[in-house]
Structure to design on (411 residues):
């Protein structure tokens, strides 16, 4: 396994995730933030002096906080929500294990037109159980216990993470806006321990055919182990006959290790480029099919996506669509197609810098565009009547999955 891995991921930041894509590996560590080159900072010193002389609440003038704020403002001025400066506490959270267990509400965060948005609710988490949906805009965060009542206009991802996460068992209220619903509405979420699996294989039967329903929740470290096992189970089951094909479910998959999405794609695509990275210098790094895999080349395939499918999952879906390997069913994906590099500094702070964009095999960049489905199917939430006698949420009626199976079998 490579020492330096490229990541297109949504980091699990203790209670929520942040929609980012990384070139990740041995991070460079700066000597500090005092060397600021030839910038003319005379105006900044004048402003600092005026604050020290005249600001009413002088106890709030803390040099370290002023420095952190100045740096954050400089980075934010670039207008890229994924290029962020992280103070030491937030950077520590950002560096937590991608595959770890964490406390929170189970929301992956991103932006829609620079408005804070839900990229995906994680399965069986407080957010998922409360009906939070991918694409919901988060307009306000309220936490009475911590005296938080914050509008999210212009909010940075790290601040949103810090406000939404909290002690397990406590509550946070999010004011959401959902397209087509009309007025904004409040959702009260009780924070809980969040444990997210990388994948799951279930078998469905339709018209005498066995369907492999493969749900990829995120492209984590664990998937390097889980995916080959899933492939082996599918190959074994095929030998019993009546195999109808595979539904690859990427709904609400916020991303992860790029190489793991290439690994999955390599089992379905015979040869060729899966994705390339284009930097500011126009230099491409190409990721091609791993010819040591190619285990499922001839099996029927349908890919399920929605607005919560982001980054690595979009790359996978987009590559499969580019090669006409299988039909894409569902809703347009999120549209996260840039890559960031994280750098840590000696004081514990860090910065994530957008350095490149991802291009699909046909040269298309998915950023802000997403992947369009071949067969569009809007999700229809189950009614209260349908849910009444069903204990497990995963057994609720799923119109998108049903359509994917129909497309797979040519019904």
């Amino acid at each position: 396994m490579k020492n330096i891995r490229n990541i297109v991921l949504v980091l699990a930041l203790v209670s929520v995730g942040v929609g980012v894509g990384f070139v990740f590996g041995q991070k460079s560590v700066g000597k500090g933030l005092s060397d600021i080159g030839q910038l003319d900072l005379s105006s900044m010193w004048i402003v600092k002096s005026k604050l020290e002389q005249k600001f009413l609440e002088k106890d709030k003038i803390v040099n370290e906080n002023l420095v952190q704020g100045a740096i954050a403002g400089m980075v934010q001025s670039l207008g890229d929500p994924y290029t962020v400066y992280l103070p030491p506490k937030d950077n520590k959270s950002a560096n937590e294990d991608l595959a770890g267990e964490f406390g929170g509400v189970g929301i992956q965060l991103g932006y829609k037109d620079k408005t804070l948005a839900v990229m995906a609710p994680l399965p069986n988490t407080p957010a998922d159980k409360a009906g939070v949906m991918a694409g919901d805009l988060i307009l306000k965060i309220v936490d009475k216990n911590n005296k938080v009542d914050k509008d999210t206009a212009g909010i940075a991802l790290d601040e949103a993470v810090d406000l939404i996460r909290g002690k397990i068992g406590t509550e946070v209220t999010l004011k959401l806006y959902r397209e087509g619903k009309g007025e904004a509405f409040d959702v009260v979420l009780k924070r809980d321990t969040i444990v997210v699996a990388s994948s799951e294989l279930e078998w469905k039967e339709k018209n005498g055919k066995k369907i492999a329903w493969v749900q990829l929740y995120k492209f984590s470290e664990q998937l390097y182990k889980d995916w080959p096992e899933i492939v082996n189970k599918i190959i074994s089951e095929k030998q019993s006959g009546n195999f109808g094909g595979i539904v690859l479910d990427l709904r609400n998959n916020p991303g992860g290790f790029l190489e793991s999405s290439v690994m999955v794609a390599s089992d379905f695509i015979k040869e060729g480029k899966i994705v390339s990275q284009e930097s500011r210098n126009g230099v491409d790094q190409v990721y091609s099919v791993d010819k040591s895999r190619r285990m499922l080349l001839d099996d029927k395939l349908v890919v399920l996506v929605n607005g919560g499918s982001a980054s690595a999952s979009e790359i996978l879906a987009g590559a499969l669509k580019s090669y006409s390997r299988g039909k894409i069913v569902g809703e347009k994906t999120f549209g996260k197609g840039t890559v960031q590099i994280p750098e840590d500094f000696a004081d514990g702070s860090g910065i994530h810098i957008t350095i490149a964009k991802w291009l699909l095999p046909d040269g298309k960049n998915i950023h802000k565009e997403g992947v369009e489905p071949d067969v569009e199917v809007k999700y229809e939430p189950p009614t209260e009547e349908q849910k009444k006698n069903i204990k497990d949420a995963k057994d609720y009626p799923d119109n998108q999955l049903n359509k994917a199976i129909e497309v797979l079998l040519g019904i």
Observations:
- Residues 198 and 222 are 6 Å apart (CA to CA).
